[in-house]
Amino acid sequence: MFTKYIFFFLSTVALYSAIMVLLSRKPIHSVLYLTLTFFAIAGHYILLNAQFLAVVHVIVYAGAIMVLFLFTVMLLNLNKEEVSPKPVWIKIVAIIAGCLLMIVLIGIFRGYDIAIEKDPALTQIGLVKNLGQVLYKQYLLPFELASILFLTAMVGAVLLGKKEQI
Amino acid sequence: MKDLIVTLIPVFPLLGFLILGLGFNRIPKKLASLIGPGTVLISFILSFIIFVIIAAGSRRGVQTWPVTEVFNWMTFGGLSLSFSFYIDPLSALMLLVVTGVGFLIHVYSIGYMEHDQGYNRFFAYMNLFVFFMLILVMGANYLIMFIGWEGVGLCSYLLIGFWFRNQEFNNAAKKAFIMNRIGDLGFLLGMFLLFTTFGSLNYIDVFHNAKGFLPGTGVVTAITLLLFAGAVGKSAQIPLYTWLPDAMAGPTPVSALIHAATMVTAGVYMVARSNILYALAPATMTVVAVTGLVTALFAAAIAIYQNDIKKILAYSTISQLGYMFLGLGLGAFTGAMFHLITHAFFKALLFLAAGSVIHAMDGEQDIRKMGGLGSALPKTRWTFLIGTITIAGMPPFAGFFSKDEILSSVFTHSMILWVVAVTGALMTAFYMFRLYFLTFSGNFRGNIKQLQHLRDAEPVMMIPLILLAFLSVTGGIINLPALAGGSAWLHSFLGPVFADATPLLKGPVYFLDAQTDYLLVGVTIVYVAVMIVVAWSRFVKKSLIPDEATILRSPVARILTNKFYIDELYDLLFVRPSLWLSKVCHDVMEIRIIDRTVNGAGTLVVKAGNTIRYLQTGHVGFYVFMMVVGIIAILLFNLVI
Amino acid sequence: MQFIPISYYLIFCSVLFCIGVIGVLIKRNALLILMSVELMINSINLLLAAFSTYLNDPAGQIFVFFIMVVAAAEVAIGLAIIVVIYRTTHSIDIDVLNKLKW
């Protein structure tokens, strides 16, 4: 029972701040609301007993990605309202389209369920020890490849960020 | 060890082909003339080793021979095909003929093709031909034989059209290829039927299973008839013979090797190989015999009025092949194989000697413009004379024994058939001596330029000729009948191959009492001698030179000169209707229907593109919007379904 | 005892995903579009983790881990591109970038 309340609380926070990301006038506020959303999702991870993911999520998203966003906003001095927002009719059409998608998705997922006996909060697979076993045994090659991906991304970012013409 | 040797036999000509074919003209001529004949010589030596092993085994009374599997080609369903070779006395003998005669002709070609631009290409094709012929002969199942069968057809096409700048030669090549395809279709269908009937294409399995069938079974008759259709195409029998005279467009060594000595005998080999199947189908045997006899007569009749030295030889080849099929059809498998071998010797000899004449005459092939070459080309003359006597069937040359064996087996079947067959043999003697006398006797009828460099060819061309002449004279030894004091070695050697078929054949194959045999031989020899004298008196004593005016006066001669109008008949029956059909298809199907559909499709795409490209605005937002709409549509679609 | 049904997660994630989609659609600021994309990625991540837990299969969480890896790389590159765009056009309005057409 208690977990259910936590679930609803976290979901409400996440959805509210996600909507506020879109409604905020200043990009800096959007970034801050997004951070809040990420924390709420991290809470969800803990609720699912995926502790490792929760920690990584906070470090990567709230720690690294959001800082990158903030830096970009500040570096480019973008913290002002959108100069020319899209025409209202486009916004309305877009919202209708999004809501339609939502209705269709909910229509699809409604009533779908998995029968479980054990409390999901008590599963052990999300623990660092168990995930580490899987990651370093079964998924070792993708793990190593991920490092190459990062290297590539780093080189690309540096190359793009350089002032002079490439 | 033996398996290795067997596998290596076809490898060398293939290597030669690859080296010469890929090297083009970068390989110097001297090296090419070493590789071309050299690879065949190695194959010949290896074949000889194999032959000795087989012969030794045969003397010890070995009745079965192992299959050499090179690799497993493919397996699917109930069909398992292995690329394997089967060497028994029959194929060992064929190996010797193919590589031996092939080698001599390769050597001859060094001289004959010396000044040709496509020297390396020529040897590449020839090596490829020898390779495919070896595959054909050595294959252990019908599919491998078919590979060789098609391969030699391809090489024949390439070599007939060797001088591809001449459109007529190209047409002759195409004609040969298409005529062969008609027969090959029969062969292919026969193979399918063979597989559905026996569940295998391996010789050993098929022949073993065939023993369980009763003679005259419908399906076996169908199989043998279809296979025989292939043999008719390849061995130029009626009705598919017209390609062979045209095939003389190729260089003379090609005519000698492919269109006389080896490839055209593939049909004979195939029938001899499938002897059990044929023995089980008496109806097919009759068809084979009749086809052979009719072809033998027909071609011999045409040859009498031909004036092109190579075409006469081509028709005589068709005629001799007819005799082989006659022998096969009457169950004289050994006799047919014997004639095949001697024919390979003397026909190669005749063609090569003719090549030497053509060489000396600067490419002239019309015997009316020759004459009196005997004194200028003594070696060519003597070798040619040997070949002529051999093919005419005078003892003690090889052709006499082989032809006599077929004729005797004809006699045991029917007296009338024998008379007809002997008539063909007499015609052969007449036209061959007509050819000989017109070419080598009398006065020279060519132009002065040709007269100046009339001389025998260089030794590299003459040595193969002399060797072949020697073989033509002595080749009869391998199957000297008891009457002539021999032991009929070929009979005992090939006996095990035909062992299963012999009891199935109705009549006795070769059991004439000595008196009758002597009588028959005597009659034949006397008549042949008469024909020679007739030819001599016409073309030497009266020195009659055939010319258009006198020929056209006699209706028979006119028909024969025009080769029974068979080419014209085929043109009317098959070529023109198919040309008409092609034209209709082109005008209606191609232009009106297919072209319009294809062009319409193109136009539709262009027009649709011109319309739809306005949607490409360059606004990312719009694209994302369309994407979302698309996703919704797909999800909704799934939801509804 | 009643647990949270998996459909709750499904619906929550769908809503979050659609908010991300709407954000991509209505915003002209490249930075905010990138943030909306992050929202969508996170909704998917959460769903993967939820299923992983419910089905007791660690592969789902490993996937989330790799998605995070890719997302981090993507953000780094994306922001670098935005910086370059800003330098050349002095704007991060994506509707200015409409040169890519016939």
Keywords:
heterotrimer, B: 641 residues, mainly alpha, 2 domains, globular, C: 102 residues, 3 helices
Describe this structure in words.
- The complex is a heterotrimer of chains A (166), B (641) and C (102).
- By secondary structure, chain A is mainly alpha-helical.
- Chain A has helices at 2-23, 27-47, 51-75, 88-109, 128-137, 140-161.
- Chain A has a domain at 1-81: NADH-ubiquinone/plastoquinone oxidoreductase chain 6, subunit NuoJ (Four Helix Bundle (Hemerythrin (Met), subunit A), Up-down Bundle).
- Chain A contains 6 helices and no strands.
- The longest helix of chain A has 25 residues, at 51-75.
- Chain A is globular and about 55 Å long.
- Chain B has 2 domains: 2-557, no CATH class; 566-640.
- Chain B has helices at residues 2-23, 29-59, 89-112, 119-138, 142-160, 167-198, 203-210, 218-234, 243-246, 252-261, 266-273, 275-279, 282-304, 309-329, 333-360, 378-392, 398-413, 415-440, 448-452, 459-474, 489-498, 514-541, 548-553, 555-561, 566-612, 620-640; strands at 67-76, 79-86.
- Chain B has a two-stranded antiparallel sheet with strand order 1-2.
- The N and C termini of chain B lie far apart (69 Å).
- In chain C, helix 1 (6-26) packs antiparallel against helix 2 (30-55) and helix 2 packs antiparallel against helix 3.
- Chain C has a domain at 30-95.
- In chain C, 76% of the residues lie in helices and 0% in strands.
- Chain C is elongated, with a radius of gyration of 17 Å.
- Chain C contains 3 helices and no strands.
- Chain C has helices spanning 6-26, 30-55, 59-89.
- Chains in contact: A-B, A-C, B-C.
- Chains A and C meet through helix 1, helix 2, helix 3, helix 4 and helix 5 of A and helix 1, helix 2 and helix 3 of C.
